[in-house]
Amino acid sequence: MRTIFPVLRWPAALAVVCALHAQQARNEDAERLERAAVVFQEIMDSPDKGIPQELLNKAHCAVIVPGLKKGAFIIGAKYGRGFVSCRSRKGVGWTAPAAVRIEGGSFGLQIGGSEIDVIMLVMNERGAQRLLSSKFTLGGDASVAAGPVGRTAAAQTDAYMTAEILSWSRSRGLFAGVSLHGATLRQDLDVNRRLYGKTLENREIIESEPPPPAAAKRLMETLNKHSSRKS
To answer: Whose CB among 28, 61, 150, 224 lies 3.0–4.6 Å from 86's, allowing a Cys bridge?
Structure first.
């Protein structure tokens, strides 16, 4: 029996599969940007359990990794994808997001194979420059400390005064500071390419401030809503 559907030759079929795969990846990138905005909004909406406003106002950059995957008991594989945005050189607002990957590291006593949301604030220019390198290790190449929790909670701590990066995690509704020592943070060029239509390193995105992709609108609006200008 003859088929009524056209038979694709191998090159054409491969092209269709690749196109579908690329579209799926772009959809996942857009969903991750949306999730990053939701995570940050939910945390900042917590009246007594969020990131101290003073710290956010002083931060040079913010890193948001929604749904970092972790496995095993206490020590195990950890992997997540997220985004970094820094203060605009214009003095108001945040830059378009650049993609990052985080791998490994110590996240404290967290049991099971669940997912956690991670937020990091980069508190000085030196930390921001390290963040924009192709790869660096938290606690090694850049000092990192658990961030304090609460709108007015102990923002003026030794950790705040000395650490280049402050970090928090949220799991099953619990939001707390974590040190993330040993975690590796690196730029994700594949995601950048899909978002911006060309290969851009994170430093190029943050420093040249290209037009943000449409999918980043909510994340940038959320960052601006809570701290549009660095104090």
So the answer is: 61
Q: Is residue 81 part of a domain?
A: yes
Using alpha carbons, select from 226, 230, 171, 225 the residue that is nearest to residue 51. 226
pLDDT for residue 152? 57
**Amino acid identity of 156?**
Q
pTM of the model: 0.84
Contact status, residue 83 vs residue 131, Cβ threshold 8 Å: no
Domain that holds residue 84: 36-226
Q: Measured between alpha carbons, how far is 37 from 220 in angstroms, rounded to an integer? A: 8
The DSSP line for 51-100 is: --HHHHHH-SEEEEEEEEEE-SSSS--EEEEEEEEEB-TTSSSBPPPEEE
C-alpha pair distances (Å), 180 with each of 43, 139, 175: 19, 8, 14
For residue 10, name the pLDDT band (cuts at 50, 70, 90): low
In a domain, 3, yes or no: no
**Tell me, what's the pLDDT at 207?**
95
* Domains: count for the chain: 1
Specify the range with the lowest mean pLDDT, choosing from 47-51, 81-85, 199-203: 47-51
